[in-house]
């Protein structure tokens, strides 16, 4: 499997999303959302001082951005302005987001301020409906991270980084979550950003493992892409949905967890195309 490099020289890169004919990703270090095409041409499309800084797209194509410090879900309008889409609340650690086909946005919080060294607490998932109403729909998650919705809209999969597993929930008609279960026990795997493919498998990025792994429900490893640095997130896209995009960066326990300039956007071809969201 051949990896090609689309971009280099970034910081803590996360939240890759294929939309239209470009890949969008966030550089948390710079506070930027960047779009890049398959030729490596890039532009900054939004700026937001937020750590984390994760995004998703509504069915009508507008982008949502999680403004973590403010507890806000923002929406990028066609003119590039950012307006409030929903008020999430002043909970620490707002993190990842996925939007289903009806415009329901699921946003998770890890439950504590990791960057400030706060003690560990379990996290939650909230639902922001298209009318801006917000309610909690899941709790007790061990550092919730990447999320994905199956193609039929019936299931939400959540990466539990500290749980070394993927959790699944049934999505109810009103957007609520029920039927929590372990979708896959990953052993020593530490899942961060995830995506789904058309065979119902999950790709997950792994920072300490320096890899991206494709697993079936139940945990069977189907494929592994080895990296020379931490894998923070991955998504499927491209013209045929068979390009696996990976955002990766060096990770250290020093004063600068992600050394400047080590963030990269990588791509490789796979055989099973994208399905579901993101």
TrEMBL record:
<dbReference type="InterPro" id="IPR013658">
    <property type="entry name" value="SGL"/>
</dbReference>
<protein>
    <submittedName>
        <fullName>SMP-30/gluconolactonase/LRE family protein</fullName>
    </submittedName>
</protein>
<dbReference type="InterPro" id="IPR011042">
    <property type="entry name" value="6-blade_b-propeller_TolB-like"/>
</dbReference>
<feature type="domain" description="SMP-30/Gluconolactonase/LRE-like region">
    <location>
        <begin position="14"/>
        <end position="249"/>
    </location>
</feature>
<dbReference type="InterPro" id="IPR051262">
    <property type="entry name" value="SMP-30/CGR1_Lactonase"/>
</dbReference>
<comment type="similarity">
    <text>Belongs to the SMP-30/CGR1 family.</text>
</comment>
<keyword id="KW-0378">Hydrolase</keyword>
<dbReference type="Pfam" id="PF08450">
    <property type="entry name" value="SGL"/>
</dbReference>
<dbReference type="InterPro" id="IPR005511">
    <property type="entry name" value="SMP-30"/>
</dbReference>
């Amino acid at each position: 499997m051949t990896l090609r490099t689309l971009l280099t020289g970034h910081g803590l890169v996360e939240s890759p999303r294929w939309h239209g004919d470009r890949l969008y990703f966030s550089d948390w270090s710079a506070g930027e959302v960047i779009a890049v095409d398959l030729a490596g041409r890039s532009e900054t499309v939004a700026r937001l001082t937020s750590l984390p800084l994760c995004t998703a797209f509504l069915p009508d194509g507008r982008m949502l951005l999680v403004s973590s410090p403010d507890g806000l879900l923002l929406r990028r309008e066609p003119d590039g302005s950012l307006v409030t889409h929903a008020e999430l609340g002043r909970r620490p650690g707002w993190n990842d987001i996925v939007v289903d086909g009806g415009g329901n946005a699921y946003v998770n919080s890890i439950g504590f301020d990791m960057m400030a060294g706060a003690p560990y607490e379990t996290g939650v998932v909230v639902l922001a409906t298209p009318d801006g109403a917000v309610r909690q729909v899941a709790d007790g998650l061990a550092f919730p991270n990447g999320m994905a919705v199956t193609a039929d809209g019936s299931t939400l999969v959540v990466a539990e980084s500290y749980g070394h597993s993927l959790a699944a929930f049934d999505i109810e008609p009103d957007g609520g979550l029920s039927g929590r279960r372990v979708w896959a026990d990953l052993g020593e795997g530490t899942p961060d950003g995830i995506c789904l493919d058309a065979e119902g498998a999950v790709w997950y990025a792994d920072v300490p493992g320096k890899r991206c792994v494709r697993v079936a429900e139940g945990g069977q490893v189907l494929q592994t892409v080895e990296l020379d640095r931490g894998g923070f997130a991955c998504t499927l896209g491209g013209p045929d949905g068979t390009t696996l995009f990976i955002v990766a960066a060096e990770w250290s326990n020093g004063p600068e967890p992600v050394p400047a300039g080590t963030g990269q956007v990588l791509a490789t071809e796979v055989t099973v195309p994208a399905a579901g969201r993101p």
